[in-house]
Amino acid sequence: MSQRPLFQFAEVEAPRRPSPERRRRERHDHHRSRDLETGKAAEHLVCCDLLLKAYNAFLSDQGLPYGIIVDLGSRILRVQVKGTRRPKNPLPGHRLSEGYLFHIRRTGKRGTRIYGDNEFDMYALVALDIHAIAYFAKDDLILQTVSI
Predict the structure, then answer these.
(1) Bridge partners, 122 (sequence order)
(2) Is residue 104 part of a domain?
(3) pLDDT tens for residues 2-30?
(4) Is residue 81 part of a domain?
């Protein structure tokens, strides 16, 4: 028995991938931010990773200082998710190679708000282009920017 693509199996026409220009217009028309899309993708990837590792993980509501809630049975763990689309080298004169940079102490458009002391318990830093996730306890990261 050969496998057919999902859309063929459901007898539904597969969606066509829009052109880059159309995608830009749609994002602008719907007032969606690319940074918001990156954050949502990172949160979904972390939630999937935790679920596959047999944790009870849930996406939190928008506007909270954490993106994922993990139910450990006796305790709830609040995970702040930070994602990036690709490696960067903001200081080419000082760095030899690119790295994944995460600004972990601030939130909001242009980093206008600083997180409080007890808003979440841990970080999940996500490199979306390679689907990699690094988990850290909040107290283990003391700098404002983390490079991996």
Answers:
(1) 79, 137
(2) yes
(3) 566 666 767 777 667 777 777 766 665 55
(4) yes
Residue 84: which of 64, 69, 99 has the closest Cα? 99
Residue 6 lies in a domain: no
**Structural domain count of the chain:** 1
Domain that holds residue 85: 13-147
Q: What is the pLDDT of residue 81?
A: 94
> Whole-prediction pTM value?
0.72
State both tokens at 79.
Answer: 């995970």
User: Does residue 94 lie in a domain region?
Assistant: yes
**Averaged pLDDT of the chain:** 82
